[in-house]
Amino acid sequence: MKRKVIGLSGSYNKSSYTFNLVSKISSEVERMYGLKKTLYDMSDLGTSLGQAMCSEQLDDTIHEVIDDIINAKVLVIGVPTYKASYPGMFKHFFDLLEPEALSGKPIILSATGGSNRHALMLEYQLRPLFNFFKAITMPTAIYAVNSDYKNYLLCESNLLDRISLATKELSPWLIRQ
Questions:
Q1: pLDDT, tens digit, for every residue of 73-119?
Q2: Is 24's pLDDT higher than 90?
């Protein structure tokens, strides 16, 4: 099985700024390290997520996504900022994973929002979530605002530089195949 980079967007829409950010970062990881890219958003998790109180209540669709995430060589996580945090269903998804599921997994964190006022959400909300799982979050996190895009494509050079930097930070955990 080819090593994978899995991108997970906390958005329910593949034409969202968040999905496009996760896709761009995942593509850079794929290019730099020769990993196979697979992207998911919240709609890919199926309908059982909102009803589930434990992982046994999830359907086969979401179990396939969980297996992909757990077996990935690297994760790229992106969330839209909602009331200074990540969306509740995104958190609920991770609540259903075993605490050891992501231990030692390298992760690039990213988020989008309407203004730079919420950029610290990455440090005060998202990073602690993955620290709980004992994942290895890269030091450089990426936060994008709407003005960083043109026709849903990233165009802000400083943001593209941060993506490159975060991708390079993966090198101690990845060797090109």
A1: 999 999 999 888 999 999 999 999 999 999 999 999 999 998 888 99
A2: yes
CA distance 122 to 78: 10
Give the CA angle between residues 59, 137, 33 to the nearest 5°.
Answer: 85
Question: By residue range, what is the domain housing residue 12?
Answer: 4-173
> 113: domain CATH number?
3.40.50.360
Total count of domains within the chain: 1
HEC assignment per residue over 164-175: HHHHHCCHHHCC
Give the amino acid at 13: N
> Rounded to the nearest 5 degrees, what angle is found at the Cα of 83, between the Cα atoms of 49 and 128?
70
Cβ contact 141:127 at 8 Å: yes
Q: Taking residues 135-147, what's their average pLDDT?
A: 96
